[in-house]
Structure formats: structure tokens, C-alpha cells
Write a structure and sequence with these properties.
heterodimer; A: alpha+beta; 6-stranded mixed beta barrel; 16% strand; B: alpha/beta; 6-stranded mixed β-sheet; 8 helices; disordered N terminus
């Protein structure tokens, strides 16, 4: 049977290549994802090892807990070490050198007035120390030795066109100041670290601009060459006060890496999810191709059976073919994945993520997972067709022109109904009942729903393609033939379309979700947003932190009325270690004029130091009542009791589940940076005039921008649109795989209809008409897949939006125009996918075709 | 409706036609310098032993295959000079086909199959002509059926109707009764005869069945790639005798 299998494979090279391609692409996506994230992990690990290479240990202030809530983790909230600790550590026997560092926000302003970096990556400043270790390495020039001297990182120097001796402005929490560049720095051997920008000052200047008088954020220690590092750490620990701890450089690297790893892990999961979608689509295509091929080879199998092959041998021959296709395609996929890893980096770069350069890392895990996944998937997809091949009775060999029928079976219908029903139930349970592993319920539910639709779709394929084919059928006879051809084998049409359905379902889902979010945001702003303007990072993107000097300056303008800076942070109720609550701080006196909070039980403007408002749902969750005094732990300042004076209902515009006045924040947080500013024009002042005045203030802070209500809305929409586009870009792969499936099926159909094509050509169909007929059919099948996909995607979106109503996603918006455009694009893409089989069909030799058996 | 005026001129001809497969010593000469003229308004049958070149001749005459050397004319059009597209249009407008089997597009109804060449050309059918053809062939009550719902004889009659629909210069039939039982076959050949006599059509048929060939006005005998004999008003017995002589 080996020989038969191999001959079968080689006789159909094109079919083999197209089937394999579906697997190649899916596996490439998986392999590319692994290689990409492994490579990043590797380059970060190398980077941190470099940075910490000369340092033996670090002394850090003890943090009561780590801020892990996504709403506030970007706020640099750190306790500090008293400056005296440096002398304690320096006095330890075996310590060769100690560097003391303070750090904070420092935004470099390029000579052309624009902000360098930022928009996500940190803009950091710290003091320069002659210490031999340290996070930055001097590349050129020297360290700052006077209050007006700085070094900047080499990446920023290049980006801003700055060199040694040039003047540079830097915005720090105290405002904008001018300095002279005296040196450039790198991170170990790297020029760029995730797009971070670094300014170093002399210690006195750093302490002043960062308000770190008499303290350090961190000490770095180098031991004598002959001392054991464990011993060194033990000796240092012995002299440290209670609020300081010593960690080895290695574990500091590890914990630095940990943050990056959790980010990369998140990334890995997202990319793998999309890769899984591509593979799922690929599995559909393999199953479909093998089914068609088995049907076409019915006579061959019957002949094999007639000459004595057992059913098992026939099954094995098909499975063997699948095995070979799977192994070869997976191996190719792995190779393509190596190239794709670079492509993914490019894609994410294009969407604004900067990653360090590094070698591609091909881990053994990547090789094993890729090969096993691709091969097993191919085999599993081929099982049913292989079993069907074995069921061909030998007598079929005697029947001329016979072909296994491909009508929809009742078993298939029952299976489809069950899968669909279970899927819908799992989806709804996962979304509404939110069990522990809700995401698995939702994922499995979505998968089963799509499978159910795919299995049931032959029931409607004939009717729907009949309707979808009408426009081309009315145009010409080739269009009419295309429409009839798309209806002649509903099972095949449905299976082919289902692959595209999956991709389109997800694209429609994210599109509807994005529109619904946009709609919900619009409603939210209508109901809650009272400000005339908002100040935040100049470009949309991750939050930009900035100095409180800005809100003070804006508030001082005669053109402005109520103005409140917003600061964020986190706290832990003392009785609930592990749970963190995001806190927002506002100017309580004016916030009601700017944002509708739906406050109850207390006058917001009377909110005083040591008091807070809780979000209604939070108070209920924790059982707090108005008048309760609750002890909280803060990262930098320890434990403090706050009194709850009321509740509020709308946290969307301020970002905290607890609301305090700025005075309370200042008493409990080291950080004083703000995330945004809400403001109104003064009475009798036009909004435009107020905006113009605010822009005057922001001239000194080019990293910030001011928007009125309308442009703020547009910006929110654009940000959602950006994420939507990234999602669609990632789903593009699955759609390409589905289109390959259409090419494949059409090629097989053309092969099967050789005789008929010959007849059509003989009675006067031109090559052009043949090409059009095949392409139209591909287009109709695609449109059918797209319609199914949009319907399934709409259902997913509807159920998700329903389940998120309480999280503020309360408006379901169907962007009908856009969804229709998707269907049209899918149909056009299908027509393009049909081009190759169309050319084959048109180039058939007429005489050979009409004389084919 | 008017049938095309009968003329005595030539509907198709082959001049010094050669068709060679392979090269050198292994070359096979399917047509070896053949000269044939097909008269208009006649039912011409072509017979010959297996390998005599009769199918090749038909395919070359019909523009489905090309000669290695020599010339083929349909009317006054020389096929060798035509580009692929013009050849297709010629097949659609000037030539009709009836094959042995699988004559119809399975997804189209009988009527759509009949109108196929006209629809492909985008031309409006001559309705009265179409009605006459359909009624003559006796398939009016089957027009809405798909080919799978028709008997073999009905399928061949629909195929004949399609061949006639565009009022072609010439109709080629390749063993049209090969898949039919003898009664159905004879009835079908009767229709072809009527098409020639009543509608002034020109038909060329290849067959190996003396009974079928005897429906023709003129019978050509082919052997080794050339015409070796011809017979007017053939009868089955005379045909059989001649075939025996040829194969001997």
C-alpha cells in the first residue's frame, strides 16, 4: 500500500501543495509566535543580565505589596530609603562601592519642540553616579557635574538630533528646565530598551526635581572581589533598618524580567489564540479536501478492494497520505514561522510597540509543538474521510462514472444540532453565570457553535447560494452556471464556506464589539462628561504621566474655571490582603462641575482629608456603610484609616473605585504625577478662548495635548479603531487559509467536471466565460461563508455585549454598512481565490476534455 | 420561421489533411492526406474500422482538433487561421454538436441546455424556430426537467435541439446513438433525417453501426486515414458488405 499511497500523492501535486499550505500557514503562525516571544524573552534576559553584570546586590525599600491592578500599575508609586542607609551599607565590611539612586519622570524635549519618546514606554530620569554598576552605561562624554548638566540616552539623542554640548529642555515634576548635554548613555550594549528615554542629572538636581530630598529609591552594591555574594548579602541585611531589604543582582534581574514576562505571556496567549483560529480553519480545509478526494477516488478504492485490499488497508492508505502531508507541511510551517517571527515584530512595531533587537530563538519546545500540532491536526481531520474511503464496496469499481453521493446525512444534521446547542449553552453559561473558568466555557462554546453551524450549513447552502448568486446569474449565462454549480453539492459548498465563516465570524464579532464599545463610550460621555476640555498625553495611547505643575498653571489662567488634575494609585484594605482597589484623587471642591459621578449620601465638594467615597458596587461587595472607618495599606506610607462618607455610581471617567480629595492622596502617596486634567472655561469665556490659553501653558509640555469634547470623542473612537485593526490584521491569517481552501475546492471541482467543461467549450463557451464561471462560483461560495460568519459573529457580539452590560457596555451597535462591505470584500477575495482554478479550467484541452471518461 | 435555403455548395471541406501523432518511426498517421467535401443540406455518415481516423476527421472538421498539415474549411472560413477565441465563436454560431453521452450540463434544465449556445453568445433566440425544433423533437413536456430526470433518448433529443437552436451551418454527431437501444436510436436518427430534409440542415455523423449509417444520404468509408469509398442512399446490407470487404 505504500507504493499506492506515494503514487496517489505524486499524481496530485497541486492538490497536495494546496492542502499542505493550509497547515503550513497555521503551523507557521504558531511557530512564529513562539519564536517571537522566546526571542524577546531571550533578549530581555540578556539585557538585564548586562545591566546588572557589575552589580552584586541591590538594597530596596520594603513594599507592603506590589501594585498589580491594570488600572494603576503604570503609576510609579515607591517607598524610599533614608539617605543614611547608604552610609550604613558603605560601612559594611566587604562592600567595595555603593551607588545611591533617585528616579522620577523626565521628558526630553527635542530642539524642534516635540516630546521625545513617551506614549507608553517610560520617560525616566535619575541621578548619575560614578558607581561602576547601575542601569545605564556611559557611552560618550562624561556624567553631569553641575545642576545644569545632564546625559541622555543614545536612542533619544539620535531621535532628537542632539549631541554633546547641545542645550536640551527637560520636563520634570517641577516643570520645564534647560540643561546642557554632557554625555550619552546606553543600556548595557543596547541602545534602546522598549522605547524608554533616560535623562541623568547630578544628585542635587535630581533630588530637587523629583522631590527626593534626603532619600534614595534604590542602592546598588559592588562587593570586594573575594567575597561570597551570599555572605555579602547577609552582612548588608544585618545593618539594614526594617523598611529596607537586600536582593541579589540575579534576583533583581529576575523580578525585572517577571514584569516583562507577564506582558510577553499575555502577548503569547493573544497571538496563539489567533494562531489556533488559523489552525482550526486549516483543519476544516484538510477534512474538506480529503472528503472530496476520497469521493473522487471512489473507483480507485473500489478497485483496490476488488483486488483484495482490506478495509483497514484502504483506511491506512488514506491516513498515510495525511501523515505525509502533515509532516511535510508542519516542517515547512516551522521554517516559514522563523520568517514570520520577524513579520510579527514588524506588525507590532507598526502598531507602536518597540522591542529590542535580538537573535531568533528556536526552542526545542517550538519544534515539537509545531510538528506534533500540524501532523496530529492533519491526521484527525483525515480520519472521517479515511473511514468513508474504506466503506466503498468493491462493486463500485464496476459502475461507470459512479461517484459517492455527498448529500447531507441525517447523522451530520443531528451532530451539528447537538454541537451547536451545546456550544450556545456553554457560551451563555460562560458569559452570564461566569463560572470560575468562564473563558474556557466561552472559548469552547464559540468553537462548538461554529462547528455546529458548519455541520448544519449544508441544509441552507442551496437556498442561500441561490439568493447570493442571483446578481451574477442575472448578468450572464456563465453567472447562471456558477450559481447552479455552487448549489449542486451543498455539503461541499458548506464545508468550503465554513472555513471562511470562522474567520468572518471573528472579524464581525470584533467589529460589532468595537462599534458597541464606541456607542457605549459615546453614551457615557453624553451622560457623565461635563468638562469643556481634557488634558492628557498628546497622542492617543497608554496613559502619559505629567507634573502637577501643569494643572496648577492651567487653573491659574483667567480663562479657565473649574480645573481638576486626576491622580491614580492603589490601596489594600487591611482586612483583605491580596485585593487591591484603584483609587482616584480629584479636586473634590470642583469635580462635580466636571464629571457627573452620581454621588450619594454625601456632598462631593465637602470630601475632606482622610475621607473617601466608594463605588456603590465596591461598598456592597465589602459591606462598607457610610460612616465606617476602614484601615488601608498604602505602598509608600503604610497603614492609614479613612472614613467612608458616601458612594458614587460612575467610575468610568475617573478610573478609581475609591474617590479621594487630592489632599488625602498627597498624604498617602509618594507619587504626585497626574494622568489627566479636566477643566471648564471660566464663566463668560468661550471654550475656544480657554483652549487657546491652555495651549499656551502646554507649549512647555509638548508631550501633552488639550482637546475639547468633540475631539476627545473622536480620539476615543480612533483608539478603539486602532485595536480593531490590529485584531483584523491578526485574523487575516485565518482568512487567507480559508481562501486557500476555496482555491483548493474549486481546483478539485474543476478536475471533477472536466467532461462538462469540455462540453461547454465545445458548444461555444469562450475561455473568458469559463474563467468567469469558475471565479463567480468561488465568489458565491465565499459570500455564503461571509454571510454565515457575519450572522455567527453578530450572535457572539450580542451575547458578549449582553453579558457586559454591567461593566458599562450597554449599547449594542451593528455597523450594518461595514458588515455588508465585509461580505462584498469576501466575495471579491473569493473571486480572486478562484483565479487559479479558473485558469486551469479555461486552459483545458477541449478535445481531451470531451473525450474524458 | 424559415428554414435556411438549401444550396448545393459545400458546407465543410478538408484539403490534403494530415494528422500525425508522434515522430519518426513511431509516428502514427491518423489522417494521411485526406480530401473530403461535405455538401450542404445533406446527411453525411462516416464509417470505418477502428483506428481508421474517423473520429480524428470529425474532430478536425469541427475545430476541436487541428491538422498537422492541410486545411479545413467551414463554409468559406479556414479554421487553421483562426485564433482560439474566433474558433470558439465559430463553434457557438456555425457548428452544432451531438456527442455519444454526457451531452448536457447537469445543472441546467433541458430548455436552458437547448438555449446554451445562444445564451453564451448573448443573442436572442428565434422563438418560432426554437418552438419548431422543440415540437419536432417531441420534448416540449420535458423542458423544465434537469438531464438526470430524462431518459437517454430524451437527453439525445435535447442535445439535438441544442445543436439546431443556433441554426448552425453544420452539425457534427459523434456516435449519437451509441448509448441508446436500437429502437430509441432509430427514432433519434429519424429526427436527424427530418432536420436535414425539412429544415435544410447539414449533418455529419460518425458511427460504426451500419443501421445508423443507412439513415444518411451519403456514406464515406475511411481506412488508414484516407477516404477509400463512398456510397449514396446506403442500406444496412450494402453497408455491411462493404465494411466486411474493407476489414478483410
Amino acid at each position: 500500500m505504500w507504493a499506492v499511497t506515494l503514487k496517489g500523492l505524486l499524481a496530485h501535486k497541486t492538490r497536495l501543495a494546496l492542502t499542505g499550505l493550509a497547515i503550513v500557514l497555521g503551523v507557521a503562525f504558531v511557530a512564529g509566535t513562539f519564536i517571537f516571544t522566546d526571542s524577546l524573552d531571550d533578549s530581555f534576559a540578556g539585557l538585564f543580565a548586562d545591566i546588572n553584570a557589575n552589580t552584586d546586590a541591590y538594597v530596596n525599600p520594603v513594599k507592603p505589596f506590589e501594585d498589580t491592578s491594570p488600572e494603576t500599575a503604570f503609576v510609579p508609586e515607591l517607598p524610599t530609603l533614608d539617605a543614611s542607609v547608604l552610609d550604613l551599607v558603605a560601612g559594611v565590611e566587604g562592600v567595595a562601592d555603593v551607588g545611591g539612586f533617585v528616579q522620577g519622570f523626565a521628558q526630553i524635549i527635542a530642539p524642534d519642540g516635540t516630546a521625545v519618546g513617551g506614549q507608553g514606554p517610560p520617560t525616566l530620569g535619575f541621578n548619575f553616579d560614578d558607581f561602576e554598576g547601575g542601569a545605564v552605561t556611559l557611552r560618550e562624554g562624561r556624567g553631569p557635574q553641575a545642576r545644569n548638566e545632564v546625559t541622555i540616552d543614545i536612542g533619544s539623542a539620535e531621535a532628537a538630533g542632539l549631541g554633546i554640548g547641545d542645550d536640551v529642555d527637560v520636563v520634570t515634576p517641577v516643570g520645564r528646565r534647560s540643561y546642557q548635554v554632557v554625555g550619552t548613555t546606553g543600556f548595557g550594549d543596547e541602545d534602546d530598551l522598549l522605547g524608554a528615554t533616560i535623562v541623568t542629572f547630578d544628585l542635587a538636581e535630581a533630588r530637587e526635581v523629583f522631590d527626593k530630598d534626603g532619600v534614595y529609591d534604590q542602592l546598588a552594591v559592588i562587593g570586594e572581589p573575594d567575597i561570597d555574594s551570599e555572605e555579602l548579602m547577609a552582612r548588608i541585611a544585618a545593618v539594614l533598618p526594617e523598611d529596607a531589604e537586600v536582593v541579589s543582582a540575579a534576583s533583581q534581574s529576575e523580578s525585572d524580567l517577571e514584569d516583562i514576562r507577564s506582558f510577553l505571556g499575555f502577548f503569547n496567549t493573544i497571538l496563539l489564540t489567533f494562531a489556533a483560529v488559523s489552525l482550526f480553519v486549516g483543519a476544516f480545509i484538510i477534512a474538506n479536501t480529503f472528503s472530496i478526494v476520497v469521493a473522487q477516488r471512489t473507483r480507485e478504492f473500489a478497485l483496490l478492494r476488488a483486488v483484495g485490499a482490506s478495509t483497514r488497508q484502504v483506511t491506512r492508505s488514506v491516513m498515510l497520505e495525511a501523515l505525509l502531508v502533515g509532516v511535510v507541511a508542519s516542517a515547512l510551517g516551522l521554517l516559514v514561522g522563523i520568517g514570520l517571527a520577524g513579520g510579527l515584530r514588524g506588525l507590532l512595531d507598526a502598531f507602536g510597540f518597540g522591542f529590542p533587537e535580538g537573535e531568533n530563538v528556536l526552542a526545542p519546545r517550538t519544534v515539537v509543538v509545531s510538528l506534533v500540532l500540524g501532523t496530529v491536526l492533519t491526521l484527525v481531520s483525515a480520519v472521517l474521510p479515511a473511514l468513508r474511503a474504506a466503506r466503498v464496496p468493491p462493486v463500485e469499481a464496476m459502475r461507470p462514472g459512479s461517484q459517492a453521493s455527498e448529500g447531507s446525512s441525517s447523522a451530520r444534521t443531528v451532530l451539528g444540532a447537538v454541537a451547536g446547542a451545546v456550544g450556545v449553552v456553554a457560551l451563555i453559561v460562560g458569559l452570564l453565570a461566569t463560572p470560575d473558568n468562564a473563558i474556557s466555557y466561552v472559548g469552547a462554546g464559540a468553537l462548538l457553535t461554529m462547528l455546529g453551524v458548519a455541520l448544519l450549513s449544508p441544509l441552507i447552502a442551496g437556498r442561500v447560494t441561490g439568493v447570493l448568486g442571483l446578481p451574477v446569474a442575472r448578468r450572464s449565462v456563465d453567472g447562471r452556471l456558477a450559481r447552479e454549480n455552487s448549489r449542486r453539492n451543498p455539503k461541499r459548498t458548506a464545508s468550503t464556506a465554513s472555513a471562511l465563516m470562522i474567520g468572518l465570524a471573528l472579524v464581525s464579532f470584533v467589529t460589532i464589539l468595537a462599534s458597541s464599545i464606541t456607542g457605549s463610550v459615546a453614551r457615557l460621555l453624553d451622560e457623565q462628561f461635563r468638562s469643556d476640555f481634557i488634558i492628557a498625553g498628546a497622542a492617543a495611547g497608554p496613559p502619559q504621566l505629567f507634573s502637577p505643575a501643569i494643572s496648577a498653571a492651567v487653573d491659574a489662567l483667567p480663562e479657565t474655571g473649574a480645573v481638576s488634575g486626576i491622580r491614580l494609585g492603589t490601596t489594600q484594605p487591611q482586612d483583605a490582603a491580596g485585593s487591591q482597589i484603584p483609587i482616584a484623587a480629584v479636586d473634590a471642591a470642583v469635580i462635580d462641575e466636571l464629571v457627573s459621578l452620581g454621588a450619594e449620601g454625601g456632598d462631593v465638594s465637602a470630601l475632606g482629608e482622610g475621607q473617601f467615597l466608594a463605588l456603590g458596587s465596591l461598598a456592597e461587595e465589602r459591606g462598607w456603610a457610610v460612616g465606617d472607618t476602614i484601615p488601608f495599606t498604602f505602598i509608600a506610607t503604610g497603614t492609614r484609616e479613612l472614613e467612608m462618607v458616601g458612594t458614587f455610581e460612575s467610575d468610568e471617567l475617573i478610573g478609581g473605585r475609591m474617590l479621594v480629595d487630592l489632599s488625602t492622596y498627597e498624604a498617602n502617596f509618594n507619587n504626585d504625577l497626574e494622568v489627566f486634567i479636566y477643566g471648564n472655561a471660566a464663566d463668560g469665556v468661550a471654550v475656544e478662548d480657554a483652549l487657546a490659553a491652555v495651549e499656551g501653558v502646554l507649549a512647555d509640555a509638548p508631550n501633552l495635548g488639550v482637546r475639547d469634547q468633540a475631539s476627545f470623542r473622536e480620539e476615543q473612537d480612533a483608539a478603539i479603531g486602532q485595536i480593531l485593526n490590529l485584531m483584523i490584521a491578526l485574523l487575516f491569517f485565518a482568512i487567507v487559509v480559508a481562501l486557500i481552501g476555496i482555491t483548493n475546492t474549486m481546483a478539485l471541482s474543476v478536475f471533477e467536471r472536466t467532461r462538462e467543461l469540455g462540453l461547454l467549450r465545445a458548444v461555444g463557451m469562450t475561455r473568458r466565460q469559463v474563467r468567469r464561471m469558475v471565479r463567480y462560483e468561488a465568489g458565491i461560495v465565499s459570500a455564503f461563508g461571509a454571510v454565515l460568519g457575519v450572522v455567527v459573529g453578530a450572535f457572539f457580539a450580542w451575547s458578549v455585549v449582553r453579558s457586559l452590560a454591567e461593566q458599562g457596555l450597554d449599547t449594542l451597535v451593528f455597523p450594518v454598512g461595514r458588515l455588508l462591505v465585509y461580505i462584498v470584500i469576501a466575495a471579491l477575495a473569493g473571486i480572486a481565490a478562484g483565479s487559479f482554478p479558473a485558469r486551469r479550467a479555461a486552459n483545458l484541452d477541449v478535445l481531451e476534455a470531451v473525450t474524458t471518461e | 420561421m424559415t428554414a435556411p435555403a438549401p444550396t448545393t455548395t459545400t458546407a465543410a471541406r478538408v484539403v490534403d489533411g494530415h494528422k500525425t501523432y508522434g515522430e519518426g518511426e513511431t509516428a502514427v498517421h491518423a489522417l494521411a492526406g485526406i480530401n473530403v467535401e461535405i455538401a450542404r443540406n445533406e446527411f453525411t455518415a462516416i464509417m470505418g474500422p477502428s483506428g481508421s481516423g474517423k473520429s480524428t476527421l470529425l474532430h478536425c472538421l469541427a475545430g476541436l482538433d487541428t491538422l498537422t498539415s492541410g486545411h479545413v474549411f467551414i463554409g468559406e472560413t479556414e479554421l487553421g487561421s483562426l485564433r482560439e477565441r474566433d474558433l470558439t465563436i465559430l463553434r457557438r454560431t456555425k457548428v452544432g454538436f451531438v456527442f455519444q453521452a454526457y451531452n448536457l450540463v447537469p445543472t441546467l434544465t433541458a430548455l436552458d441546455n437547448i438555449r446554451l449556445p445562444l445564451d453564451l453568445a448573448g443573442s436572442d433566440p428565434d422563438h418560432s424556430w426554437l418552438d419548431l425544433v422543440i415540437d419536432t423533437l417531441g420534448i416540449r413536456d420535458r423542458l423544465d426537467h434537469k438531464p438526470a430526470e430524462l431518459s437517454g433518448g430524451q437527453q439525445q433529443r435535447v442535445a439535438a435541439a441544442r445543436a439546431l437552436a443556433s441554426k448552425p451551418e453544420i452539425i457534427f454527431a459523434d456516435e449519437p446513438t451509441g448509448a441508446l437501444d436500437s429502437n430509441t436510436g432509430a427514432a433519434f436518427l429519424g429526427f436527424l433525417e427530418r432536420a436535414v430534409k425539412e429544415f435544410g440542415q447539414t449533418i455529419v455523423m460518425v458511427s460504426h453501426d451500419p443501421g445508423a449509417a443507412s439513415h444518411a444520404d451519403r456514406l464515406l468509408f475511411l481506412a488508414d486515414g484516407v477516404i477509400v469509398d463512398e456510397m449514396r442512399e446506403p442500406t444496412p446490407d450494402r453497408v455491411l458488405d462493404r465494411m466486411k470487404a474493407l476489414e478483410a
